Amino acid sequence: MTRQKKDRDYEAGEESTLSTATVATFVEKEEVLSSKVSSCPEGGLRAWLTILGVFLIQFTTFGYTNAHGVYNDYYVREYLQKTSSSSQIAWIGSTQLFLVMSVGVVSGRAFDAGHFYALMIGGALLFEFCLFMISITQPEHFYQVFLAQGVGLGIAVGVMYIPAIGIISHYFQRNRALAIGLGTSGSAVGGAIHPIMLNSWFHGSVGFHNGVRASAGLTGGLMVIGILLMKPRYPKDKPPTKSMFTEFWGFLKDIPYVFMILGTMLTLAGIYYPIFFIQLSSIKNGITPHLAFYTIVVLNGASAVGRIIPNLLVYRYGPYNIVVPSVYITALLIFCSLAINNAPGTMVFTVLYGFFSGSYVSVMPAMIGSMAAHDSEIGARMGVCFTFTGIGGLIGTPVAGALLSKSFVWWRPVVFAGLCVTTGATCFATARFLKARHLQTQRL
């Protein structure tokens, strides 16, 4: 369809134009669909300062959760070794991940309703409070760590996650996928830098408790700067807000959207297994602790690259055409980890896994947004999707930890995680097929 034909259809009020715009909500919009809604600047000082703010928030929040492998290794081998199994300790990270995702059903609607600053400031305060609570926990007291890190920190990050991504839609339409990639790369960079500091502090002269306090001071300062840099641009005329129940069931009648949700849930059940366990598995495979400490750093560094480069291709090929192969390759890499037993193989795995898993994570918001009928429901769509996605994160890591057992039988969690991610990729391929058949386009 030519641009001239699009213009004529829109002026005539035809629904076909709106259908095309629906597909391109996140990545393909090239023009303003209504004079009543302010156009996206697609750049400028304020827009790029907002992206910098998103980067800093992602660095300090989701980037901190990406460094959970350091905590997991420390808890399993030292801090909670006597009273808790690997499976029990895995519930800390999985509960945290579940809440990061599931809280989005509330924070997404609140963001759409205009409460951006309340969410960001409240989440930041809770985040700092929970870090200081972790710093006063006692060894072998599992419940203290679980409540502060698993529950409290998960809610704090979940409150901020969707608003910090959704605000990008206020400034970018045509280049939105690239802007999301740049902003969310902060979580990968944080996942590379936080482990270096945490490992150095936990296993050095600073110690665990003072190390957590030091990280709280660093993240608190960066969050203040990030929030000050971001400024939302809500449209003057927003569509009327539907009730949560009506909106929820309306979304679930969209069959491709349902398959996409199932795919994200299954993928998350397996994709975080290497991220949480790679440092521990490296040490158990005989790699020196000093080198193993850098596996998470390398993985997240590669993930930062993976969150930017594929987004350059989203506008041209569509989010599904990037996500589907990336997730299949990620699943293949999980299975390949069974053959790794030396330092070179470990490093090659961490680079490849970081890149392709990072590609999925960064393009996922664009994939969800492509299902939205208009920008005002993007936050709600993400919230509903992340709620179900969090279930995968809740059960995936503990199941992997239970399969691993105290005997460290690595093939069992690898097979479980690999099958979960493979099935998730198949669900994405199914959602893409159904949507492409309905819209009669392969650019999805």
UniProtKB/TrEMBL annotation:
Coiled-coil blocks: none
Lipid bilayer topology: Multi-pass membrane protein
Keywords of this entry: Membrane, Transmembrane, Transmembrane helix
Protein's cellular compartments: Membrane
Segments crossing the lipid bilayer: 45-65, 85-104, 116-136, 142-165, 177-202, 214-234, 255-279, 291-310, 322-340, 346-368, 380-404, 410-434
GO-annotated cellular components: membrane
Keyword Ion transport found: no
InterPro entries registered for this protein in UniProt: MFS (IPR011701), MFS_trans_sf (IPR036259), Proton-linked_MCT (IPR050327)
Pfam families from the UniProt entry: MFS_1 (PF07690)
Superkingdom assignment: Eukaryota
GO MF annotation list: transmembrane transporter activity
Family to which this protein belongs: Belongs to the major facilitator superfamily. Monocarboxylate porter (TC 2.A.1.13) family.
Protein name (record): Major facilitator superfamily domain-containing protein
Organism name: Crepidotus variabilis
